[in-house]
């Protein structure tokens, strides 16, 4: 059974976020705003059903999915695109593949102690965020 990621986490750092957003064709003004945000991530894990909420003072985004089942994801709140998304476990790493206009798009989540790591990729850009568990 994979690790339980359930919890609420506050962003403590990010690296290379601007390059990742640029790879998604996000305009420079919006990239600057996003890079200033310190979002919270709330993960709710119930067997193979997961809900991941990204909450900020600017915008909220909610992903509700079944592990291993492809679904159409509407990323309008992020970059205006839709893609075919599949989330699976690779050991204790939650891996998301988003097939659409952008190559190599997706993310990974894993825990190290009470830190939640998120690595996001799009095209050749890779960004990493670190979140501290708050509850």
The CATH class is identified as Mainly Beta
State the low-pLDDT regions, or none. none
Rg on CA atoms, Å: 14 Å
What is the H-and-E element order?
Answer: EHHEEEEEEEEE
Mass-distribution shape: globular
- Sheet bearing the most strands, described? 10 strands, antiparallel
Number of distinct beta strands: 10
The CATH homologous superfamily is called Calycin beta-barrel core domain
End-to-end CA span: 22 Å
Assign the CATH topology.
Answer: Lipocalin
Domains (count): 1
Please state the average pLDDT score. Answer: 92
Individual helix count:
2
In percent terms, what proportion of residues is strand?
over 45%
Named at the architecture level, the CATH assignment is: Beta Barrel
Query: Given the helix and strand composition, which structural class is it?
Result: mainly beta
- Portion of residues in helices? 10-25%
Major β-sheet strand ordering: 4-3-2-1-10-9-8-7-6-5
Structure characteristics:
mainly beta, 2 helices, ten-stranded antiparallel β-sheet, globular, Lipocalin
Question: Could you characterize the architecture of this molecule?
Answer:
With 135 residues, the chain is mainly beta. It has a single domain (7-133), classed as Calycin beta-barrel core domain (Lipocalin). 12% of the residues lie in helices and 56% in strands. It contains two helices and ten strands. The protein has helices at 17-23, 28-36; strands spanning 7-15, 40-46, 49-55, 61-66, 71-75, 81-90, 93-99, 106-112, 115-122, 125-133. It has a ten-stranded antiparallel beta sheet with strand order 4-3-2-1-10-9-8-7-6-5. Helix 1 (17-23) runs antiparallel to helix 2. It is globular. The relative contact order is 0.23.
